[in-house]
Amino acid sequence: MFNKKTSTVVVIFAVTIVMSVCFRLSYWQWQRAGDKQVQLSMLSERFNNKALGKFDITDNWQGAKIDIKGKLVPDQWWLLDNQVLHGQVGYDLIALFEVDNTDTLFVINLGFVPAGDSRSQLPAIALPLHEIEVNVQFKIGAWSGFTLANSPDQSAYHHNVLQYLEQLYFERESKLPISSQLLIATQGVIQGVTPHYKAVVMSPDKHRAYALQWLLIGLSAGVIAYFAIKKKSKDLSV
User: Quick one: which of 20, 50, 53, 79 could link to 91 by a disulfide (CB 3.0–4.6 Å)?
Assistant: First the structure.
C-alpha cells in the first residue's frame, strides 16, 4: 500500500515539473511573438518615414530590406571561402559600400562567385565605379557562424580569401570606421555574381503556434496524469 502511494506522489511530482516546463516554454514563445511583432512594426514605421538612403545607421535594422544608393570602394574586395550554390563550390564576394548620406562604410555581401579549377587562382573581379542602387537585407544575428579558423584571412593561397567575416578585421584593413551591421545584396549588382542569402526569420504567428503547442502539451500531460491517478485510486479502494 505504501509503495503504491509513493509511486502516486512521484507521478504527481514528475507531471508537475513537465507541466511547468511546458507552460514556461509556451509563455516564452508568446513573449517572442510579441517582441517580433513590435520589431516588425518598428521596421515598417521606419520605412514609411525615411527617404531612400536616408536612415539612422545607429538603429538596429537586422532583418530589414531596403533600397539604398552608394558606391563600392575601388579595389576593396574579398572572397568568403567555402560557399556552395546549386552544388557548385565557390566564394561570396565581399566589398565595402559607401552609402549616400552617411559617413560610415558598410560591408556588403554581393553574392556567389564560382571557383575555378585551381584553388590557387582566384576569379577575376571588377567592381563598378559608378553609383549603384541595390536592394539589401540587413543580416540577422552574428556575421559568422562556427569556425575553426583563428583569423579571417587564414588562407593558404591568398590574403583576401576569408574564412569568416568580422567587423574589426575590415576596420583594420581599411583603417576606416565600419558599421556593425552587415549588408546582404538581394539582387545582382555584378554580372556573374549571384545573391543567394535567405534569412531564417520566424514570424509572430509561428511563435504563437509554438506557444499554443506547448500549452496543449502541458495540459495533455496534466489530463493524462489526472485520469491515471484517479484510476489507481479506485484500484486501491477495491
Answer: 79
For residue 116, count other CB atoms closer than 10 A to its CB. Answer: 12
CB 113: neighbour CB atoms within 10 A? 22
The answer to whether residues 51 and 80 touch, using CB atoms and an 8 Å cutoff, is no
Residue type, 116: G
pLDDT at 235 over 70: no
Cβ–Cβ < 8 Å for 181, 57:
yes
CB 133 within 8 A of CB 140: no
Query: Residue 3: its pLDDT value, please?
Result: 61
Q: Is 82 left (phi over 0), alpha (psi -120 to 50) or beta?
A: left
Please, what's the b/e burial string for 137-152 (b: 16 or more CB within 10 A of its CB; e: otherwise)?
bbbeeebbeeeeeeeb
Q: What is the spatial distance between Cα 170 and Cα 8, in angstroms, rounded to a whole number?
A: 62
Q: How confident is the model at residue 78 (pLDDT cuts 50, 70, 90)?
A: very high
Q: Which residues contact 97 (CB under 8 A, 6 or more apart)?
A: 70, 71, 72, 73, 105, 106, 107, 108, 183
In the chain, domain spans: 2-43+203-237, 64-185
| DSSP H helices in the chain | 2-49, 167-174, 204-237
With cell 510579441, the residue in question is: 34
CB-based contact 171:178 (threshold 8 Å): yes
136 close to 57: Cβ distance less than 8 angstroms: no
Ramachandran sector of residue 68 (left: φ over 0; alpha: ψ -120 to 50; beta: rest): beta
Please tell me the pTM assigned to this model: 0.66
Model confidence band, residue 62 (pLDDT cutoffs 50, 70, 90): confident
